[in-house]
Design goal:
The protein is an alpha+beta fold and 175 residues long. The chain is 27% helix and 25% strand. The protein binds zinc ion. Zinc ion binds next to helix 2.
Length: 175
């Protein structure tokens, strides 16, 4: 396995739209292994192939705190979404920035697993947010695209004020 380089905003390669994976083979599984090594080292809880300059529809997640829940989504497709969740999102490709983003609270997703078998999964909360964030990467979209410049400034000022008045204890996770 090898650690890969993560592209960082505003690298134009992050704007490429990924194409479907055609064969789930050993070459792809080697890439998946490298992506997990890269994500765990960062550390992060999700990584899309786009972020390591591979423009195929593949993403991985692990929202556990002990590397116990690695998930692989190949050619993911959201079938249903409902509810609203607003959370602070970070991104390994936009280091140091955390912004509030609104997503669907619950999704149903269809995908191929690392063996090429078709699966469906219901996800909610953090996992649902993570999958939606990573699918955006596959479409060349970044979480900062959801925020207006004015709102970005407001949030930044608010956070700076909070930092002046109290020590920050919040630990945000980058996806
Ligand atoms: Zn990201």
């Amino acid at each position: 396995m090898a650690k890969l380089t993560i592209l960082e905003f505003p690298d134009p390669r992050l704007r490429k739209k990924a194409t479907p994976v055609e064969a789930v083979d050993d070459r792809l599984r080697a890439l998946i292994g490298d992506m997990f090594e890269t994500m765990y080292a960062a550390p992060g809880i999700g990584l899309a192939a786009t972020q390591v300059d591979v423009h195929k529809r593949l993403l991985i997640t692990d929202i556990s705190s002990d590397k116990s829940d690695p998930l692989v989504f190949i050619n993911p497709e959201i079938l249903e979404k409902d509810g609203v969740i607003v959370s602070d999102e970070g991104c390994l490709s936009v280091p140091g920035y955390y912004e509030e983003v609104e997503r669907a609270e619950h999704i149903r997703v269809r995908y191929l697993d690392r063996n090429g078998d078709e699966k469906e999964m219901e996800a909610e909360g953090l996992l649902a947010v993570c999958i939606q964030h990573e699918i955006d990467h596959l479409d060349g979209k970044l979480f900062v695209d959801y925020i207006s410049e004015a709102k970005r400034q407001r949030i930044r000022k608010k956070l700076q004020k909070e930092r002046r008045t109290q020590p920050t204890t919040k630990v945000a996770k980058a996806i």
